[in-house]
Amino acid sequence: QVQLVESGGGLVQAGGSLRLSCAASGRTSGRTFSSYTMGWFRQAPGKEREFVAAVSWSNGNTYYADSVKGRFTISRDNAKNTVYLQMDSLKPEDTAIYFCAASPRDSVYTRTHMYDYWGQGTQVTVSS
Fold first, then answer.
1. Which residues, in sequence order, are CB contacts of 50 under 8 Å at separation 6+?
2. Residue 1 CB contacts under 8 Å (≥ 6 apart), including other chains
3. Residue 5 CB contacts under 8 Å (≥ 6 apart), including other chains
4. Coil, strand or helix: which one is 127?
5. Using CA atoms, how far apart are residues 117 and 102, in angstroms rounded to an integer?
6. CA 73, CA 88: separation in Å to the nearest integer?
7. How far apart are CA 62 and CA 54, in angstroms?
8. What is the mean pLDDT of residues 53-79?
9. Could you tell me which residues come within 8 angstroms of residue 21 by beta carbon, excluding any fewer than 6 positions away?
10. CA distance 44 to 29
């Protein structure tokens, strides 16, 4: 079983920055953190969970939703079993609960059902 714990959320003014972290622990079938694709998703009140960014495990390929491209950066530190989401130039429409997720599949999937493990989420609120 893989456990994921997000942190770093909070309240920020529009134009500001936040860095989210997601710490992973545990392992399944001999797989370690470095062999999971990691993704970030978000869910605003009354809306479905949507893809934000992902980083694959084999070659570090990254992929971003159009709405965050150029403003958000996903990265991973396999030595620390942690994935990060640097969020710059934040907008009120970025307000949501942000979730990290892990997939054993080696590709940057955008669909929630391609990820096997999820964290509990961290709230990000951007004021105008």
1. 41, 42, 43, 65
2. 26, 28, 117
3. 22, 23, 25, 119, 120
4. strand
5. 5
6. 8
7. 6
8. 94
9. 6, 7, 8, 82, 83, 84
10. 34
| Unique residue bearing structure tokens 């009140």 | 45
pLDDT band at 120 (very low <50, low <70, confident <90, very high): very high
- Give the contacts of 43 (CB within 8 A, at least 6 positions apart): 49, 50, 96, 97, 99, 121
Q: Who has greater pLDDT, 35 or 96?
A: 96
Q: Which residue has the tokens 């955008």?
A: 110
CA distance 53 to 43: 13
Distance of CA 74 to the CA centre of its chain: 7
How do residues 74-88 score in pLDDT, each as one tens digit?
A: 999 999 999 999 999
64 Cα distance to chain centroid: 10
Alpha carbon 107 to its chain centroid, in Å, reads 15
CA–CA dist 35, 12 (Å, integer): 33
Which of helix, strand or coil describes residue 113?
helix
